[in-house]
UniProtKB/TrEMBL annotation:
<comment type="function">
    <text>Antitoxin component of a type II toxin-antitoxin (TA) system.</text>
</comment>
<dbReference type="InterPro" id="IPR036165">
    <property type="entry name" value="YefM-like_sf"/>
</dbReference>
<dbReference type="InterPro" id="IPR006442">
    <property type="entry name" value="Antitoxin_Phd/YefM"/>
</dbReference>
<dbReference type="InterPro" id="IPR051416">
    <property type="entry name" value="phD-YefM_TA_antitoxins"/>
</dbReference>
<dbReference type="Pfam" id="PF02604">
    <property type="entry name" value="PhdYeFM_antitox"/>
</dbReference>
<comment type="similarity">
    <text>Belongs to the phD/YefM antitoxin family.</text>
</comment>
<protein>
    <recommendedName>
        <fullName>Antitoxin</fullName>
    </recommendedName>
</protein>
Length: 81
């Protein structure tokens, strides 16, 4: 069930409302009885697939070289801009 609160109540009880939203509740904020905003929990954050990222970097570097440049030279070149 979605909870509805007035804007004054939302202002005075925001920390408590945010705790409830963090637990998954949706809260509609109204002004003079008209919905003006909805507090919703953020979408679930996806954890990056580290192994897939490493494998993608390995595939990317195949057939590529730095043509004799060192990492230090590349850093210094980047700092010029």
């Amino acid at each position: 069930m979605e909870k509805t609160v007035g804007s004054y109540q939302a202002k005075t009880h925001l920390p408590q409302l945010l705790e409830r939203v963090a637990k998954g509740e949706r809260i509609t904020i109204t002004k003079h009885g008209v919905p003006v905003a909805v507090l919703v929990p953020p979408p679930a954050a996806e954890k990056p697939d580290v192994r897939a990222a490493v494998e993608e970097m390995r595939r990317f570097r195949k057939g590529r070289s730095l043509d004799g440049l060192t990492i230090r030279e590349m850093i210094e070149e980047g700092r010029r801009f």
